[in-house]
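Readers of this paper often ask what the protein records in our data store actually look like. Below, we set out a record of this kind in full and without editing:
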Amino acid sequence: MATVTIALEGLPPLFVGKNMAHGLNLAPTPAMNPALRIVVVAPDLETAVSDDDYARTQAERSRSLRIGLLENGFNLIATLPADVFLAERIAQLQPDMIIVDAESDARDALEHVVMATRDARRPIVMFTNDQDTANARAAVAAGVSAYIVAGLQPERIRPILDVALARFEHEQALLAELADAKAEIKGRKVIDRAKALLMERQQLSEEAAYARLRKTAMDKNLKLVEVAQRMLDVVDLLG
């Protein structure tokens, strides 16, 4: 399996490999799920050669996580640093899930990821050794689907990601339902205002005003709320 290094437009070169981890070359397993494309945000693995014991420990954590992902059959498409280029890189790679591997700098890494995904929500899973419950609550409030402390054992990775993805999809469904409900309430208010205006200016009953709005919507092939809003806009414009 060949490794590749590509440069995203306007950004520094970035290691990217299909079903590969940074510096690793593992064969795909029968359980490979090509539909789930994962990006890991983690410290630079070059620190593995550093004299800094902490940096080397962080690098080994990241390497263990990537090995676990590949052994569990996930499609690891890239490893990214939490820097100012993260948003552009994620926008170009379009991953299905983002995994943040961070220890004491978990908050800084998470801020970069949240900013990078604010316009296109994705499930975010954070692996960390930070046991501060306040940081965990802040991470969940920021949009993290799973906050895992000391959970890098290979056998735990798949169930953790499965649950995180299910939770994210459930939350997105709830948000969509809430948005639909708000839109429906807003639409009803617009229609009621349009009906009231017709009733006042053309001396129509509520039923007749509604029937006129409905007929216009059918004739114009528009939604009822669209006709109502257009009528209100014209009245506002003309005073």
